[in-house]
Amino acid sequence: MCGRVTLEKDFADEEKPKLTKSRQRIPKKPFVGDIDATSFAIAVDAKGKLGWKKNHLSGDHIIELLTEQVSNSYLDYLQQRKISYIFAGKKEIDFKSALNQLASLFPIKTIMLEGGGHVNGSLLKEGLIDELSLLIIPIADGTSNAPTTFEVSEYLQKKPAAHLRLTDVKKLQHGVLWLKYRAR
Ligand SMILES: NC(=O)c1ccc[n+]([C@@H]2O[C@H](COP(=O)([O-])OP(=O)(O)OC[C@H]3O[C@@H](n4cnc5c(N)ncnc54)[C@H](OP(=O)(O)O)[C@@H]3O)[C@@H](O)[C@H]2O)c1
């Protein structure tokens, strides 16, 4: 699972989705584009901004996680490409509902949340992260205003900091450290 900004920057096929006016009204119900898929790329895209040419990312079937504010033309765009989608929330994503739907509609038991910081922060705030795997890479960089590992947007209610328990430390090649934590 990745946030809209990360996907737009590094993975989406089109800069902006090329929408056409859809002839019929599409009900705001989940849509499964590939019933045989067994691995998935989940895009957190509340407003329906991501452009795709195909329905998979390196073989992982794409599921768009939308809110109800998404336009009819964007739903038509996804259906034409056989990209799956679910709705969770009116304007902001309700991640608890999203995870329940993902588990009931698709063969999904475990999700690897891969960032960026805002999507990580949204699930952390809801207490939906069980394990944190952190890779420390020996590069120092002073870019200002870059998202950290967890960011909670100002429009979302901030909750107390999460306490984590260190469960494993591994030294990998090239000076990389792999730290594993469980949520307490
Ligand atoms: N170092 C790493 O391992 C790593 C991993 C991944 C990404 N990155 C980097 O992180 C940067 C992007 O991170 P980011 O934090 O700016 O963006 P992000 O988490 O990739 O995406 C944030 C977007 O996701 C949607 N979103 C997130 N939480 C939401 C919520 N609660 N409700 C509704 N929508 C929600 C919003 O989309 P809308 O704005 O469309 O509403 C939001 O702007 C990139 O530079 C990327 O390369 C680094």
Please give the domain count.
Answer: 2
Give the percentage of residues in beta strands: 15-25%
Kindly, what is the distance between the CA atoms of the first and last residues, rounded to a whole number of angstroms?
A: 22 Å
Q: Give me the strand/helix succession.
A: EHEEEHEHHEEE
- Shape descriptor reads globular
Quaternary: single chain
Based on CA atoms alone, the radius of gyration comes out at: 18 Å
Distinct small molecules bound, one entry per kind: NADP nicotinamide-adenine-dinucleotide phosphate
Structural class: alpha/beta
Number of discrete helical segments: 4
Q: Percentage of helical residues?
A: 10-25%
- The residue ranges in which pLDDT falls below 50 over 5 or more consecutive positions are none
> What value does the average pLDDT take?
94
Describe the structure.
With 184 residues, this protein is α/β, with parallel strands linked by helices. The protein folds into 2 domains: 1-112, no CATH class; 115-184, Dihydrofolate Reductase, subunit A, CATH 3.40.430.10. It is 20% helix and 22% strand. The strands form 2 sheets. Strands 1, 2, 3, 4 and 5 form a 5-stranded mixed β-sheet that branches. β3 and β4 form a beta hairpin. It is globular and about 55 Å long. The structure holds NADP nicotinamide-adenine-dinucleotide phosphate.
